[in-house]
Amino acid sequence: MTRPSQNKGILYIVATPIGNLEDITLRAVRILNEVDIIAAEDTRRTRILLKHYNIKTSLTSYYEHNKYAKGKQILSKLNIGKNIALVSDAGTPGISDPGYYLINLALQSAIEVTPVPGPSAATAALSISGLSTESFLFEGFLPSKTNARRKLIEKIKEEKRTIIFYESPNRIRATLLDLLDICGDRKTVLTRELTKVFEEVIRGKISDIIRKLEGRQIKGEITLLLSGNIDKNKPGDTSIMNLLSEYQKKFDLPMKDLINMVSKDKGISKRDVYQQSLKFKKTLQLEDKNGKD
Ligand code: SAM
Fold this sequence. Notes:
Elements: E1 10-14, H1 26-34, E2 37-40, H2 43-52, E3 58-61, H3 67-79, E4 84-87, H4 99-108, E5 112-116, H5 121-129, E6 136-141, H6 146-156, E7 162-167, H7 172-183, E8 187-192, E9 200-205, H8 206-213, E10 222-226, H9 238-250, H10 255-266, H11 270-292
Parallel strand pairs: 1-4, 1-5, 2-3, 2-4, 6-7
Antiparallel strand pairs: 7-10, 8-9, 8-10
Helix pairs in contact: 3-4, 6-7, 7-8, 9-10, 9-11, 10-11
The structure holds S-adenosylmethionine.
């Protein structure tokens, strides 16, 4: 491992507010004043912050779609001794944003990378959630495509720790429906626009939150928290039952074959699917009985 060189600059990873401009540390303001350049994910947003604190340091843009070319330029500046502060559009750089790439590039060149800690949407949301904080899983953004998203949720559905997601307002409904379907009706906290004028926190079961959002046009930035799988009396996995029911309607096959198909599709054991199929059969019997009455 190469050691940081004294002739090289320092890359400061500076956390900035996630909304309220007052949420910045004294040290962050000093570092932003002292560095040679500030590399910002969203220069328009950062300009507002700099103006608020009367910081005159020059800005350069560094974001997802220029990170390779711009990363190299920033690295060459660090290599000749310039100190650079990296800021994301909000919160802590490197947490679910392009900061990760630059940080690694700098580390590979033995540049000193140092944190100037402060806000992050994930910890702000977790801190007020009322869900267990003893240990937690930060999942970041879920995949935007339905299949990939559902697969990922399947993978984490047994997770016991509180799970934190970043989510876009356009997808929040679909995500909540998938979570309900795959994980059952668990405790959830939806936080929106934290520290901003329209800050909103909705607590409840997933189904409560879906109901509360019904008919609303959802805007703004969302961090969603899901309680871990700690409910001992959890209901049957409705996604398995749904798939069994779908395959039963589509294919004229014995239950044994349907179980095989679902087990392969879901990547779970035949035994687990079989257990669910017993519940599924019970539901069918009940429906049958009600139909005949
Ligand atoms: N690095 C940032 C951090 O540490 O907070 C997160 C960057 S990520 C690209 C941006 C996501 O964070 C948003 O899409 C949203 O899910 C979440 N987020 C940002 N600001 C928020 C806020 N004020 N309230 C709730 N969630 C927020």
